[in-house]
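Hey, I'm writing a tutorial for new members on how sequence and structure tokens pair up, and I'd like a real worked example in the thread rather than a made-up one. If someone can provide the structure for the chain below, I'll link this post from the tutorial.
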Amino acid sequence: MISLDFSLAVSLYILFFLIVALATWAHFNKKEKERSLTLDQKFIWFCNICTYTYVNSKEETLSVCPRCGSYNKR
């Protein structure tokens, strides 16, 4: 039979818990990186006056440039 000291058993239990926690964190961190932020092309606007490219997800046909204040049409 294998003799196991109490302090060794506690150390092995903590080590096992840390390995499981690290593996779980790595798994969810990998999933989060795979699910990177993407932006649909319909939200990207280009100002015809000041040539500023900006994101506006509220408007669909007419948008106001945040830099120069001119109106832009889709």
